[in-house]
Amino acid sequence: MSLESQLGDFLYSYEKLIVLGVGNVLKCDDGVGPFIIKKLKDEGIETKKIMFIDAETVPENFTGKIKKEKPSHLIIVDACLMDRQPGEIKIVNKHDFANIGISTHSMSLSFFVRYLEKDGDYRIIFVGIEPESMDYADKPTCVVENAAYEFIDTLKGIL
After folding, report:
1. What does the pLDDT look like over 28-65, one tens digit per residue?
2. How many structural domains compose the chain?
3. Which UniProt keywords apply (predicted)?
4. How far apart are CA 154 and CA 26, in angstroms?
């Protein structure tokens, strides 16, 4: 199933969407989540129905904001180690978080999701992008940046 059809199916009849970018902007491809959020904000498509949050490496700091906004849908975007080709995008169901490697966060994303769901009814997916490099650098590699733009263009086309 293509990225477009998976995102389209997920976002069908959304009422309020939050896209949460997670990652360390000082570690090359690990910063792809915040990179995507910055580019989406630059597009000027944020509305009362669509919100973008750059959570950096501390998504747990935004649980209050997410709960206050009461989104119907939440997309979490981050670099993750999935044994795939660099730049490959995979949509991971919230129940499959345990099968992917995420090492830069103080709170696991599966715990983060369970905490959010305790007080709210959200549809949640995780968009993982396989990193090429996690070395110190202030921007993603070309292959991961291209994947970021593919995700951005696909999301904009659906919204």
Report:
1. 999 999 999 999 999 999 999 999 999 998 998 999 99
2. 1
3. Aspartyl protease, Hydrolase, Protease
4. 26
